[in-house]
Amino acid sequence: MADAVGGDVIEFRLLGPIEVRAGGRPVDAGQPRQRAVLAVLAADAGRAVPVEAMIDRVWGDAPPRGARASLQAHVTRIRQALGEVPLTFAAGCYTLGTDPLSVDLHRLRHLTAQARDPRAGDASRLRLLREAVRLWRGEPLAGLRGPWVAQCRQAWGQEHLAAAVAWGEAELRAGDPAAAVTTLADLAAEHPLTESLAAVLMRSLAAAGRPAEALAHYETVRRRLVEDLGADPSPELQEAHRSILRGPDPVAGPAQLPADVFGFTGRADQLAQLEAVLPAAPGAPGDGPGPAGAVGIAVVSGMAGVGKSALAVHWAHTVAGRFPDGQLYVNLRGFDPAGRVMDPADAVRGFLGALGVARDKVPSGLDAQAALYRSLLAGKRILVLLDNARDAEHVRPLLPATAGAVAVVTSRNRLTGLLAAEGARPVALDVLSDEEARDLLARRLGADRTAAEPEAVDEIVEACARLPLALAITAARAQLSGFPLRRFAAELRESGVDALDTGDPALQVRAVFDCSYAALSEPAARLFRLLGAHPGPDIGIAAAAALAGQQARRELAELVNANLLTEHLPGRYVLHDLLRAYAAGLSEQRGPAIRRLLDHYAHTAHAADRLLYPARDPMEISLGDGKPAPLADHRAAMEWLAAEHRVLLAAARYAAGNGFDAYAWQLAWGLDTFLFRRGLWHEQIPLWSVAAEAAERLGNLTARAFAYRSVGRTLIAFGRHDEARAQLQRAAQLYERTGHAAGQGFIQNTLGYLLGSQKEWTAALEYDGRALAFYREAGSARGQAIALSQFGWHHDMLGNYEEAIAYCRAAIALHRQVGDRRGEADVLDSIGYAHHHLGRHEEAAESYRQAIDLVRELGDRFAEAQILVHLGDTGEASGDPAASREAWAEAVRILTELNHPDEREVRAKLDAGSRLQR
């Protein structure tokens, strides 16, 4: 709480009489109405409160006529009293710029939230709740009246009540029930029908040696419930009553949990999900939202080595105090390397023994044993941890059947049967985040050692792919020596999975993976082996089928269920880095599969591009026989390329580096239109550079020229004009050697575009003319349309607007003849620009709107932004500032998404227009 008056820490108190204290000394909060204004601001500390809302809260439904002026006067006096604490006004709202934790209300909420955190141990939880309860000083907002005040008192009182109940439970677990009895009794007098409060008070009284008072209180509450509500006490209250009648149990419950996990870190979301399976107890914030009377079951699933057991055991230790009847644990060894899977009958018999059943009293047969086990758990608050289950049937006989008990199951499989039939809550576990992985190493190796070699730590985290088992093994090896961490990073870099061998099969990454792999069917195992060679970041269903040479849905589902593969998006699958390395090391003949995969990608990318740009010239390196994935229309093509383009980039690099040069070039061609229209130019340059090298190895001059010209065209977009010219000249030389007139026309046209981007419009027209001549020689109607279109634009830039329109009309006729809608959009933009500068603003706006409709349909984001800028300019010139701001704002949004440097210039237009409008 850094806010201060005159350098002193300031506190705002609302949970009782309204007070402001600076450095422990009171600050005059003024008369009641001023205190009300201050209370409204402090209750929303750090947030903007509209003036109208403040008037409603301070004066209620009938504010006086001068309420706004009075409010301003109160705010002025509050500013004077608070000194350095900012109290600002903007956009019709006041904001008290203090740290919310300087307000007792927000501190109460913060403390109780921390106490609910599953990572908080019992001692920490008790400390937090003690502090929270002490913040309450009586009736909140004492001395104030009104609907808002009454509403706050009611709501804040419930928050305090919940915190007090949780505090009472914590004191009970800590063995000091008397500490809470007086406060709980006072609250019970105010809230006689709150059963969670009555239950904790009764248990506290009994534990403090006052069972008669506890039973008397139960009778009082029971009678009030019947008389006032016509209801019986809740199961929780009845169980508290029965436990007091039974008296203390001399037999301690089982406590079978393994030791807590050394260096456990992170997993806040998963710990919270586990917390949610705790039995419901209304009003107790430490309990989960599960339905009353239901058995809480959670299934923690994830790949081998991801830390499922560590999570479950650590969480079990944090909540053990909530299960006074004990904790049962068994390792079912579902994926034991030696195949020693535990029979459920053996596990049940072990549990019966832990629950006090003599060996000669155990019935024969699993069904009878499970029935006795469930009977013994009935009515008990007991935690059952079933570790390393193979499948749902492996654990069903071990699940409790009545409320109060909680079961947590861990498995490498998802156990969807338990989710469907038993209503279990899934808790999916993935690898650690970068921060969690570094924290794990720091906890095990010491913060000083990891801080001394941050680069090595980052390398270790990356090499271990954030897998907890791999990180723990590396940390253990580093603990045994004083060698620099960079040595272990280098070893991981060189040896991969094999560097993570401890000699203990249970703590050896390859051996752990072996167990999961061995449980697969042969078709799924084969697909897993093939996936180890897949070059992209993820894979779709059709590509997996191409890789396998057959339908692969069932195998993909089996791999996902075994947590050897993750379906991170619907129909898209990703392999963890260490699993990829492991799969790649398994024996498999992959050559034909890779060829099928690249063939699938090249054919489908080509088909998608033809849907995006049907007027485009044919590909220089033709495809062989093959079948693309079905794509219905332009939209389907865009969606497929959007999903696959990162995979296709990786596939092109892989193909070029592994002797599949034709595929490398074809994939670059298939991606080109999509990348250009989406503004992903930074990906085009390295892609076409790889394609140029592949074409050189193939000895295909026109394919090389096409690659060079594509690199040159893209470099212009980045303003790298000298590099662009060098690439275009290399392409021109190759086209000249092969006599490729259309290619030479493209080069001249692109050189004209380059000069135009440097504002050398007259020189650009010369190259436009050369391009038109080459295109006519080649008989290319599309090329002639492109050249004429660029003629029109450069005449626009020179102010020759009527000439520009004439060239553009000739170009648009050719574009429509060949079906080039993208080229048509460019020409419409140029026509609109000419009309704008001739003062024909309606015609200009109509041309721009037609062009925008076309490029939006085509998915060309950069072209859309450019035309929107022109449309905004026309709106401004025609005296329609609202239309201009709307167009410029949309252009700014697109350019920001594309990370394009033009965004700054357009934003300046937008800001200037907004200032003029104001």
From TrEMBL:
TPR repeat extents: 825-858
UniProt name for this protein: BTAD domain-containing putative transcriptional regulator
DNA-binding residues (ranges): 1-107
Alphabetized SMART domains for the sequence: BTAD (SM01043), TPR (SM00028), Trans_reg_C (SM00862)
Matching InterPro entries: AfsR-DnrI-RedD_regulator, BTAD, NB-ARC, OmpR/PhoB-type_DNA-bd, P-loop_NTPase, Sig_transdc_resp-reg_C-effctor, TPR-like_helical_dom_sf, TPR_rpt
Domain OmpR/PhoB-type: from-to ranges: 1-107
Keywords: DNA-binding, TPR repeat, Transcription, Transcription regulation
Transmembrane region(s): none
CDD domains, sorted: BTAD
SUPFAM superfamilies reported in the protein's UniProt record: C-terminal effector domain of the bipartite response regulators (SSF46894), P-loop containing nucleoside triphosphate hydrolases (SSF52540), TPR-like (SSF48452)
Record-stated family: Belongs to the AfsR/DnrI/RedD regulatory family.
